[in-house]
Each structure stands twice: as structure tokens, then as C-alpha cells.
Write a structure and sequence with these properties.
Radius of gyration of chain B: 20 Å
Number of strands of chain A: 12
Number of helices of chain B: 15
CATH architecture of chain B: Orthogonal Bundle
Shape of chain B: globular
Number of helices of chain A: 9
Shape of chain A: globular
Strand content of chain B: under 5%
Oligomer: heterodimer
Radius of gyration of chain A: 19 Å
Largest sheet of chain B: none
Strand order of the largest sheet of chain A: 6-7-8-3-9-10
CATH topology of chain B: ABC transporter involved in vitamin B12 uptake, BtuC
């Protein structure tokens, strides 16, 4: 499976969110999208997920435009992990996770198969949320919720996994565990994973490929070796950055803002 | 962990389903037995469900009281269904056809309908259509007003109260004017009463309630996905706007059937879904049937209370049904508001 994004332009009314964005994604790779606030990271993910329709350009899955897929088939292929889940009507974690199996069931199937429950069981064990299944969705901590949302994506069993800020609210251990887990299953199951993230350090640890966005434009794309250079990142983020080598990997360490507030 | 948890959930559902069905039957029989002439519930039960022969005078009494009990049961069920759907599509646990003004606008439409075509009063089934148009207008008005007010769940409730008060006032005036046409005290319309329903009206209450409940149960997957947000539903391959509009249609229609026959009964649509969720959780596959049963049960009980008060207090005429449900339901609303504002 291959995803090609070609000449995509997205507008929110009169504001342009993406300008002529083109790239392709391959199987078994974790691609990190980085860039400051408002650069268009989430918009790009949502465009790939077909939640937002581009005004110009298109997204292709295996050579076919995404818009010719019917929504139900698409939901078996692509999952966009949105941390903004409505929780105003109380429901339990298990009830939420069960909905992720719907794309794989007939619409009027009232019984949940044993296999579906086993998948939920397996993934909730791997992400260490098994003890939360009985809890109400609005009564878990933000870190636990983040893991629940990621678990839901994997339970849906997609071929393309789009994660929006998966490290937010997670503590140090789970940041590393969750991202390492995503990387491992991406390789094992030959997934295409795209992760939008603010934490450059984490991006440099796990990226197979990186895309730098600024004001809706791609300003750098390629292997971490190529993309992660001090000059470029300092210019984009307005932050002084150091890069060290660790086990043959470039690790990014942000040091201080270039312009200090109040000075 | 997931499998035993799920099994437990199914077990809870089955237990609730059986015990509630049983309770509904028991209360239904009791409701028929209660009246100025008290009947033996066992005799009534055998007569209704097994067709045992009874004395002619008892049979007449049963057949007279049957339509009233059915009206209470069915209007409770359809109001509860409407309440659950409204809570889901607005994702607001305080939603209910009464609080959101659907009932009042439907009643206003009914009053206007009677003024324009007095013969509608005889063919109440056509009133359903009129009431439906009113209910859907009320839904759109409340939602637009709440959007202007920021769209928060509190803004929705306040917008609903504004619309409900306005249109209950208007319908009050209109019904006062047409009092001589409808020939029943208009308070019965304003606060609901099951006692004015005739036997020929029962099919028009039964069929919509059953059909709409079945359609809603069939929609459980889209509804469950809708709970977690528009984008979430979209991601699972459902069209959130279609789900919302279809559910609003069903909610408005089931509200309209009760308004056309029994008038405004408040708070059943609010309380029943909460009780159902407490019993079986918020998975619509389980919560829809339970909500419908709880609604039927609550309304039957409220109707029995109405009968008892009227019998023992000896006032003129009968108390409207909506008075009793308001006394039971309003404290429940207060409790929900307190809990939500605290959170």
C-alpha cells in the first residue's frame, strides 16, 4: 500500500491552511510531521483521513483518489486519532472501544463476536489500560485517556495510522512506550504511520522520515539525517537548538528561545 | 477482562429487560383495576391476557379503562425514546422534548390546527402531522437560539426554556380561545392527560411507537458512534449530519404522537434515559429498549397517582398527568444541573 499526497491546498474560508503539499508515504515507515502552532499539521492529517476535503489536489491510496472510496471502506483503511472525543454523555471505556470494531461488522449485527472482544482484550493489555475498561470515559486521567484513544485506533485495525499529538499529557515512561509500540507495530504489520508532534526530541528518537511544515508549506522532507539540521529548525521554531549524536542517531535538544519574552 | 465485563453487561441488560417488562405488565393490570369501582387484579389479568370470561359489567369497565392505560404506557414509551434521541444528538444529558420546547411548539401547532380546521379534533391522527411540524420547528428554533448563545449545554437548556415558555404561553392563549371546540378542559392538553384518549385512537399511538422504537434500535451503531463527536462518527464511516437529522425526525415524530393524543407530559423524556443508562450503560443497543420500558413504567405509575389523588381528594374533574410527572421530574432535573455544574 502506498499513499500519495499531490498538490493539496486546503482553505478554511479565506485562510489558506495548506499550500501545494505533495509527498508520498510507504509501508512500514513512521513519518513525523513537525512545525510550530498553526503550521497545518492537524489539517494535513485530517486531509489524509478524508475528514477535510482539499480545494485543489488529492490524496491517493494505491493510485485511487480517496474520494471514490466509500466512507465505510475507508474506515477500515485509515484511522485518525483525535484526542478531542466528546465525553458529555457518560459512557465506559469498553463501550467506547467496542465502537472501533463497527467498520468490520455488518451494520445490523447485534452480537459482538468473540474475536472482536479478543482484539479489544489484546490491545488494551498491550497499552496497559485493561484495568480501566470498566471506568467512565470522563473519569480517567489525561494520560490514561490518551492511551485509550490510541488503543481505539489500533482496535480498528487500520493500514494507515494518523496520530495527532500522541505524546501530549503522557508521562515520560508512556511517551517512550507508546511511540516505541507504534513504531514496532508499524514495522510488524506493515502500517503507514504518520505522527504530528511538538516534541522534537521524541521525533528525532523514532522518525524514519520527517516533514517540516511552516505556514501550510512543506519546507523540508526526507530522512531525519537530512531534515534535522540546526539552522533549519532554529529558523522555523525561533529556538536555539543543539543536535547530538547518540547511537548513530541525531538527537534534537531545544535550548532556549531566540527572542525572549519581555526583553 | 473485556470478555467477562461484556458478558456482565449483557446479563445486566437481560435482567433489566425481563424485570422491567414484568413490572410494566403488573402495573398495567393494577392501573386497570384501580378506579371508582375497584376490580380484582388477578381477574383483570386473566381476562386481558388469557381471555377468561368475566361478568359483563366488569368487561365493560376493563374495556373502558384499557385505552387510558394504553395511552399512558405508549405516550411514556415514545416520550422516553424522544428524550434519549435528543440527549444523544445534542450530546447533552439535560435534553428532553419538554425542556427543549418541542412539546410546546407542537401543542401551539395543534391549537392553530384546531382553530383553522375544528374537525381535526375528531380525527386526531391528522393532528399528529400538525404536531410534528410544530415539534420540528421547536427543535430548529431551540438549536438556532442556543447556537447564538454559544452552543454550550447550558445555553441549550436556557434556549429551550425560553422557547418552551413562549410557546406554552401562546398555546395557552390559543387553547383558551378554542375551548368550546375541544370540549375538554384545555388544561388537559397543556399538562397532559391519558383520560381523554378514545379506543379508536390507540392504533395511532401504538404503531408509531413500535415502528420508531424498532428503527431507533436498528440505528444503534451510528448512534453509539455519534456520542463521541461528529468527526468520530465520520471516521467510522457514518454521516453525522444524516444521523442527527434522522434522529431529530424520529424524536419530533414520537413527541408529536403524544402531543396529539394526550398533550404535554414533561420530564419523562429526561428521566427515563438517565435511569436506563444507570441500569445498562450508554450503549444504545441496550439503552433504547430499557429507556422505552422505563418511560412506559413511569407514566403508568404517574397515571395511577393521578387516579388515586382524584378519587380520594374528590375535587371536580381530574388532575392532569403532567402535574404529577413535573413533581417527580423537576427535582431530578435540579439534581442533574447541580451535578453537571459542579463538574
Amino acid at each position: 500500500m502506498k499513499i500519495v499526497v499531490e498538490g493539496v491546498e486546503v482553505w478554511y474560508n479565506s485562510i489558506q491552511a495548506l499550500k501545494n503539499v505533495s509527498f508520498s508515504l510507504g509501508e512500514g515507515e513512521v513519518t513525523f510531521i513537525i512545525g510550530p502552532n498553526g503550521a497545518g499539521k492537524s489539517t494535513l492529517l485530517k486531509t489524509i483521513a478524508s475528514i477535510i476535503k482539499p480545494r485543489i489536489g488529492a490524496v491517493y491510496i494505491d493510485g485511487k483518489t480517496i474520494s471514490i472510496y466509500n466512507p465505510r471502506d475507508l474506515s477500515k483503511i485509515i484511522v485518525y486519532v483525535d484526542p478531542q472525543i466528546s465525553r458529555s454523555i457518560p459512557s465506559t471505556v469498553l463501550e467506547f472501544l467496542i465502537t472501533a470494531r463497527y467498520p468490520h461488522q455488518p451494520l445490523l449485527n447485534f452480537k459482538i463476536s468473540r474475536r472482536d472482544l479478543e482484539i479489544i482484550e489484546k490491545i488494551s493489555r498491550q497499552l496497559n489500560i485493561e484495568h480501566l475498561l470498566d471506568r467512565r470515559l470522563d473519569q480517567v486521567s489525561s494520560g490514561e485517556f490518551q492511551r485509550i484513544v490510541i488503543a481505539r485506533a489500533l482496535i480498528q485495525n487500520p493500514k494507515v495510522l494518523l496520530l495527532d499529538e500522541p505524546s501530549a499529557f503522557l508521562d515520560l515512561r508512556y511517551r517512550l512506550e507508546v511511540l516505541e509500540y507504534v513504531k514496532r507495530i508499524t514495522q510488524q504489520n506493515k502500517l503507514i504511520s504518520v505522527i504530528a508532534i511538538h516534541d522534537l526530541y521524541l521525533a528525532s528518537l523514532y522518525a524514519d522520515k520527517a516533514i517540516v511544515l511552516e505556514n501550510g508549506e512543506i519546507i523540508a522532507i526526507g530522512t531525519p539525517d537530512k531534515v534535522f539540521n540546526c539552522e533549519l529548525l532554529e529558523k522555523v521554531y525561533k529556538v536555539r537548538i543543539a543536535i547530538t549524536n547518540l547511537n548513530g542517531k541525531k538527537i534534537i535538544i531545544p535550548i532556549e528561545p531566540l527572542e525572549k519574552i519581555g526583553s | 477482562m473485556a470478555t467477562p465485563l461484556y458478558r456482565r453487561k449483557v446479563k445486566h441488560f437481560l435482567i433489566s429487560l425481563y424485570s422491567l417488562s414484568l413490572l410494566v405488565i403488573v402495573i398495567f393490570v393494577i392501573s386497570i383495576s384501580i378506579g371508582p369501582a375497584m376490580l380484582d387484579p388477578v381477574k383483570v389479568f386473566n381476562a386481558i391476557f388469557f381471555g377468561y370470561p368475566v361478568e359483563t359489567n366488569i368487561r365493560v369497565i376493563i374495556s373502558l379503562r384499557l385505552s387510558r392505560a394504553f395511552a399512558a404506557l405508549l405516550s411514556g414509551a415514545s416520550l422516553a425514546l424522544a428524550g434519549l434521541l435528543m440527549q444523544t444528538i445534542t450530546r447533552n444529558p439535560l435534553a428532553d422534548p419538554y425542556i427543549f420546547g418541542l412539546s410546546s411548539t407542537a401543542l401551539t401547532a395543534v391549537a392553530i390546527g384546531i382553530i383553522l380546521a375544528p374537525s381535526l379534533m375528531v380525527y386526531r391522527q391528522y393532528l399528529i402531522v400538525v404536531a410534528f411540524l410544530g415539534a420540528i420547528t421547536g427543535y430548529i428554533l431551540t438549536l438556532s437560539l442556543s447556537k447564538l448563545g454559544g452552543g454550550s449545554s447550558l445555553a441549550m437548556v436556557l434556549a429551550g426554556i425560553a422557547i418552551a415558555s413562549l410557546f406554552s404561553g401562546i398555546s395557552h392563549i390559543l387553547l383558551y380561545i378554542v375551548q368550546q371546540i375541544i370540549r375538554t378542559p384545555y388544561v388537559y392538553f397543556l399538562m397532559g392527560s391519558a383520560s381523554t384518549v378514545l379506543q379508536k385512537d390507540i392504533p395511532f399511538l401504538t404503531i408509531p411507537t413500535i415502528v420508531l422504537t424498532i428503527i431507533t434500535i436498528a440505528l444503534f451503531k451510528p448512534l453509539n458512534s455519534y456520542l463521541y463527536g461528529d468527526e468520530y462518527a465520520k471516521q467510522l464511516g457514518f454521516n453525522p449530519i444524516l444521523i442527527r437529522d434522522l434522529s431529530a425526525f424520529i424524536a419530533a415524530f414520537s413527541t408529536a404522537t403524544t402531543i396529539a393524543f394526550v398533550g404535554i407530559i414533561g420530564f419523562i423524556g429526561l428521566a427515563a434515559p438517565h435511569i436506563a443508562r444507570f441500569l445498562v450503560g450508554s450503549d444504545h443497543r441496550f439503552s433504547i429498549p430499557i429507556t422505552v420500558l422505563v418511560g412506559a413504567l413511569l407514566t403508568l405509575v404517574a397515571d395511577i397517582v393521578v387516579k388515586l389523588i382524584s378519587m380520594y381528594a374528590g375535587g371536580i374533574g381530574e388532575l392532569p398527568l403532567g402535574v404529577v410527572t413535573a413533581v417527580i421530574g423537576a427535582p431530578f432535573l435540579a439534581y442533574l444541573i447541580i451535578r453537571r455544574v459542579r463538574e
